[in-house]
Amino acid sequence: MSYDTRLDRAFQNAPVLPLNNCCRYCLISDCHRGDGSSNDNFLKNQNLYFTALKHYYANGFTYIELGDGDELWENRRMNQIIEIHNNVFWLFSLFHRQNRLYLLYGNHDMEKKKPGYSGRVFQAYFCTDTQCSQELFPDLVFHEGLILENCRHDYRLYLTHGHQADFWNSTGWRVTRFLVRYLWRPLEHFGVLDPTSAAKNYTRKDRVEQRLSEYASKNDISLVTGHTHRPRLDPLAPSYLNTGSCVHPRCITCIEILGNTAVLVKWACDTRRDNTLYVSRDVLAQMTLFGQPD
Question: Domain holding 254: CATH number?
Answer without folding.
Answer: 3.60.21.10
